Amino acid sequence: MVTPAARREAVAHLRTTFEVSERRACKALGADRASVRYRSGRADDAAVRARLRELAAIRRRFGYRRLLVLMRREGLVMNHKKFRRLYREERLQVRRRGGRKRALGTRAPMAIPQGANQRWSLEFLSDAFADGRRFRILAVVDDFTRECLALVADTSLPGLRATRELDVIIAWRGRPAMCLSDNGTELTGMAMLRFSQERQIEWHYIAPGKPTQNAFI
User: Fold this and answer.
1) How are beta strands 148-154 and 134-142 bridged, if at all?
2) Is the pLDDT score of 179 beyond 80?
3) Residue 209 carries which DSSP code?
4) Burial of 10 (0-12, 13-18, 19+ CB in 10 A)
């Protein structure tokens, strides 16, 4: 099957080579003139595609949903269906892989905090009860004042629960300009991405295998 684009190219070639009219070229090739004259009214998405490729290179384990959250945070207005189409056309699908799953953080340098609430550090710690049951602790520290803002312990601390605990701190402490954390699934999931977008909090992920980048806890 010949595509409309190929037919348009064939008509243009025939007209240029033999100097015939569009009508005669279309008749010779059996092409519809309306189809040949058609010009797409679709907006140029070159800038969106370029930024999408850039973010996908930085966040290599993010799918289109989480990348869309990041780009909407930057001001993009686009529905998820079109964004998914661009994502697939750019062949950015995250490949399945075996072994340990590790998310990748940004490599951007961090500024030294100059006041309270400029940057909070988050970390999940783990331990066990005497009977062997595991529990986790969410620790939150202000990097400038070195205050421990929260120590939340529970047997389960998913991302949504972590966002609620951060809201509790914000209610009495105020909103931080930035949060720093590792690439744990609780902190890179959709719940935390939406939280940071809605609260307008910049989020910095440390590089994998570099725990010293989050050395405040």
Assistant:
1) antiparallel
2) yes
3) T
4) middle
- 88-97 residue pLDDT tens: 888 888 766 5
Percent of the chain beyond pLDDT 70? 87
Q: CA 183 to CA 204: how far, in whole Å?
A: 10
Residues 208-217, buried b or exposed e (16+ Cβ, 10 A)? eeeeebbebb
**pTM of the entire predicted model:** 0.56
Compute, in degrees rounded to 10, the torsion defined by CA atoms 156, 165, 186, 119.
-140
Q: Are 62 and 52 in contact (CB under 8 A)?
A: no
* Burial class of 97 by CB neighbour count within 10 A (0 to 12, 13 to 18, 19+): exposed
Averaged pLDDT, 63-83: 89
